[in-house]
What we know:
Layout: E1 4-8, E2 15-23, H1 27-34, E3 45-50, E4 57-66, E5 77-84, H2 86-96, E6 102-104, H3 109-116, H4 122-133, H5 137-147, H6 150-174, H7 187-206, H8 210-215, E7 217-223, H9 229-237, E8 255-261, E9 264-270, H10 280-295, E10 298-304, E11 324-329, H11 338-341, E12 347-348, H12 357-371, H13 383-399, H14 406-424, H15 430-437
Parallel strand pairs: 1-6, 7-9, 7-10, 10-11, 11-12
Antiparallel strand pairs: 1-2, 2-5, 3-4, 4-5, 8-9
Helix pairs in contact: 4-5, 6-7, 6-14, 7-13, 13-14
Amino acid sequence: MSDTIYALSSGPVxxxxxxxxxxxxxxxxVLETIAGRRPxxxxxxxxxxRAPGGxxxxxxxxxxxxxxxxxxxxxxxxxxHCHGGRAVVxxxxxxxxxxxxxxxxEAGEFTRRAFDNDRLDLLEVEGLADLIAAETxxxxxxxxxxxxxxxxxxxxxxxxxxxxxxxxxxxAFDFADEDDVPDDVSDGMWAEVERLEGEIERHLDRSRGAExxxxxLQVVLLGKPNAGKSSLxxxxxxxxxxxxxxxxxxxxxxxxxxxxxxxxPVTLVDTAGLRETEGxxxxxxxxxxxxxxARADLALWLMAADDDLxxxxxxxxxxxxxxxxxxxxxxDLGSEGAERNERxxxxxxxxxxxxxxxxxxxDLARFARDAASGVGDLVAxxxxxxxxxxxxxxxxxxxxxxxxxxxLRAEDLRRASDSLGRIAGRTGVEDLLDVIFGxxxxxx
Length: 444
């Protein structure tokens, strides 16, 4: 018999209300002991919570009772909606710890039990984690479609169709000598397999921007020292995030700011100025800057209008980003040399006067929106999903090869079905579970 677990499932205290969740076989006994009764299932009841044996009054709380299996975890579950003071929450948690077989929950343990008891599949678990972490409206919509089970239903439908095709194909050679099994019983199935392959390919194509939407686009600010990178970061973040000084080499490490641009999450990254230097710390900052640029979706190469003309060209290593825009900064300081202000650039900005900032933000928003375009509700949002989908496609492609024996082609379809099953946790995912459930906080 498993332990009964408990945890504070709401936000940090103090708060207006604190929700303490209990799950496991001893939950009913715990309620009867501290609340005096088990309320009617799924109906809130106002109860006095007391320490065991008629002890001190701990709190007056709303109590909910969810008997198994109709609960989040599939076990007996109770929720205690207490007053959100630190002392109240501490007293209730301390009281729960006194029961035999009752212990604090580990991170993600409630959700892990829901998965183990078939209340959630692995896609729904990951969708729930993404929903908790969602910072923008687009992320929320993507996570809701996955947490609601629609994506798992799609993959299950594909698995059922593969299983049926495989059954017909195996019937062709298992019962080849039976008069009531037509010789061409499997022929019609190959057209269905071809249609299914096309559906998976189109699904993968639509999913290409989904991980960017889930993780956020990476936009890196690059340039030589004093190009105005940190000032631009502060202006776009609308707060002082980075230290701004005339001294070269002020920024030694990467600094990140998270923005919401038309519902698409964007991580704006300030980096060390690129130059030759003997300083060990600054050299490490430059190395990290170039490393982030190589992984970036977009790099903004800043050229200060009051600096030398040779800053117009980004070094070759900075060109590793998928796309690079040249931005002329400090245009309010460049009037003494008109040719400097005329250097080719996509944007001209001044943090001091505000010139060009709105246009830059609008362009970044368009870039983010275009990068996430085509992402619908039912898409593979993680690299893990796409790896298994690609494996399923490869197996289906093998199965459609008429040069292979029919027995091997049927085995190829089984491999494709297994790959789809791993996405939702139907088969072969034990090594992933600790990693996935480790994404959750205590109490979820």
